[in-house]
Specification:
With 416 residues, this protein is of the alpha+beta class. Helix content is 37%, strand content 21%. β12, α12 and β13 form a beta-alpha-beta unit. The two termini are 52 Å apart.
């Protein structure tokens, strides 16, 4: 019988990988809570229209990458390829547009049918944050600062650079869009097939094309900075001043874009060279019309998302796990006392476990593999006297401790 393999593009998280993954998620949750964000948990699938409206039918995600299926009732459903659309849908369907601003953190699996690559699978995980109902550039700066705070806490900010751009307001974007169409029409025959298809519908997407023939044409393409209205320019200036106040360094990158009409003003990416060509680890931007696409009012918002797998790959180390205690028994006859000791320690929030098989040597080998710092040895004599032999697995020191003194003695030992 052949061994069942995981589906291509999926990945089991076990051992240190699972610990790193959980560390990234928990660190992000802890830090976003310092900024007043609350976690929302939305379904992993939605009506297909939720994503088709939010991502646009010319995007690669909608046209090539979504996992879409028809359920038994005939409805078209899609596994979520990103988190923002579900948050905006939840804002509307839970009647929360009247209580703005809303500060939302989310975390969980996303699904895209794309070529598996380093740090990116077809089922991958994201953390993300959305600040819904604000218009000030200071909010954008604070969101970027929160992302930077998470990277700092993970110990990976030295390997990451913040790149920043503006898409201006609607009037700026319309003028820029027309200029882009006019320019790219003059070189249409030199564009890739995808970019030729995007030329009329979504010319901004040509700017972030990865095709070498498209990249070669960008040096002479019009830039947003030449089409900004006074209002857009003021927002851009205030954002950069606010980032300076937060002491967050950045470099301007005029080719960071979002191709959909409801994106405006701020767009940004934290990028690294440590993960090959796909170097973006946390990215976001300001948007204004997505909530309206879900049937709600026009709600301005700023958000970002980050790939957990990519962040985990950049970790140098994670904090050492709390010191743990291993229970070692000399016979099955003392299991009752061993269980009593286990529950006593866990009640006092001391990590403790035991194995259910093996002689003394095998049990000690197991304790060392589990990286326990202390072993509690229990034989029939110890059970009769209601004591344990407390063995420090680092120093080798061993002492007898009465059961009623065990918790206090362990707290002292584990604190060292």
């Amino acid at each position: 019988m052949s061994v069942v393999k995981p589906v291509r593009g999926t990945h089991d998280l076990i051992g240190d990988e699972a610990k790193n993954h959980q560390y990234v998620m928990q660190t992000a949750k802890n830090i976003t809570s310092l900024y007043g964000f609350e976690e929302w948990i939305t379904p992993v699938f939605e009506e297909t229209g939720v994503f088709a409206r939010s991502l646009g039918d010319t995007s690669d995600i909608v046209s090539k990458e979504m996992y879409t299926f028809q359920d038994r009732g005939g409805d078209s459903l899609t596994l979520r390829p990103e988190g923002t659309a579900g948050i905006c849908r939840a804002l509307v369907t839970n009647a929360l547009t009247q209580t703005l601003p809303q500060k939302v953190f989310y975390a969980g699996p996303m699904f895209r049918y794309e070529r598996p690559q380093k740090g990116r699978y077809r089922q991958f995980h994201q953390i993300g944050a959305e600040l819904l109902g604000t218009t000030t550039p200071f909010a954008d700066a604070e969101m970027i600062a929160m992302g930077q705070h998470i990277l700092n806490a993970l110990g990976i900010s030295d390997n990451v650079v913040l790149e920043l751009n503006t898409l201006g307001d609607l009037a700026s974007r319309q003028a820029w869009r027309e200029a882009l169409i006019a320019y790219f029409k003059t070189v249409k025959s030199e564009l890739s097939e995808d970019s030729q298809n995007r030329l009329e519908k979504n010319p901004l997407r040509i700017l972030d094309s990865k095709a070498a023939q498209d990249r070669a044409l960008l040096d002479h393409a019009p830039l947003m900075k030449d089409y900004m209205t006074p209002t857009a320019l003021e927002f851009w200036d205030r954002l950069r001043k606010a980032l300076d106040q937060f002491k967050i360094p950045f470099r301007e990158n005029h080719y960071i874009v979002r191709g959909l009409d409801y994106y405006s003003h701020t767009v940004f990416e934290f990028v690294t060279t440590k993960l090959g060509s796909q170097g973006t680890v946390l990215a976001g931007g300001r948007y204004e019309g997505l909530v309206a696409e879900m049937g709600g009012p026009s709600v301005p918002a700023i958000g970002w998302a980050a790939g957990v797998e990519r962040l985990a790959l950049l970790l140098n180390s994670i904090p050492v796990q709390p010191k743990s205690v291993a229970i070692i028994v000399f016979s099955d006859a003392v299991h009752e006392m061993a269980f009593t000791v286990l529950q006593l320690l866990r009640t006092h929030k001391i990590a403790a476990e035991m194995t259910y098989k093996g002689n003394f040597r095998k049990q000690m080998e197991w304790a060392n593999k589990r990286k326990a710092s202390i072993a509690l040895l229990i034989g029939e004599d110890e059970a009769t006297k209601q004591v344990v032999q407390l063995k420090d697995l680092n120093s080798g020191e061993q002492v007898e401790v009465a059961l009623h003194d065990l918790v206090s003695q362990l707290i002292l030992k584990l604190a060292k």
